[in-house]
Amino acid sequence: MEIKRDDFITTLGGDETVSRMDSEAKADALEDFLSTELDKILTSTDPNFPTVAEVEQKIPTRHYRMGAGNLFVATTPGAKVKTLPPMPDKPTLYDFFAVRFAPANHVLQSAALAMKNGMPEEIVLACLLHDTAQALLKADHGYWAAQMYTPYVSEKTAFAIKYHQALRFFADPAYGYEYPDLYRRLFGEDYVPLPHIRADYQMLKNHPWYEAPRLVTVNDYYSFDPNAKVSIDPFREIIGRHFKQPKEGLGNDNSPVAHMWRTMARPDTPL
Length: 271
Description:
By secondary structure, this protein is an all-alpha fold. The protein is built from 14 helices and no strands. The chain is globular.
């Protein structure tokens, strides 16, 4: 991403203000500035979209891979990963939201929209959880997230989480869902979904639970609102009714997915 130095300095209050900042403060300010600039790109209304070939040409220009989880990379040039707060001995879902998924604005906004739209509690919970696996990794995140939550949520909630990833690539006018311009910018205007995504879409069209993942896409936010005030508090009763918190703590319960939670709890473990 090209950075205009004068624009950056102006956002901080000018040269005099910058001269009084220490190196760490400057680095944090640069990271915030780049994040804001990236948001502008992703929410752009420019009618011109890149091609798949143009997107692929940018791969060697990055210092990280796009599919890497949020906990494992600093996505802004020159930035460093930050020391994470330790997890409690018996971590709950709330602990992961607070210190591993945070700020989690996207899923909190999606769940709030689902609640506002009067969605069933299983769908509200699916909206709350659907993208949280991106802390672990972004590629195939719907499938990873469904696996991560299967021991703790209903079968339908896990189904909705898993297959939102396939349905988001296919418009459905009956539900008011259009293919997002964001995907044309990220993947290229001529992008064709991968074979497993196309196969799952064909399966889902005739599945009795089709509506569950479709409602996740409908209540998904594709433009991030940085001014929205979001909190997990409105969803505590739903979580209490529909999330099976292990008494040993997530990652300590010897479930088939405990290792996934341990990886997010201790992402700096070298082996």
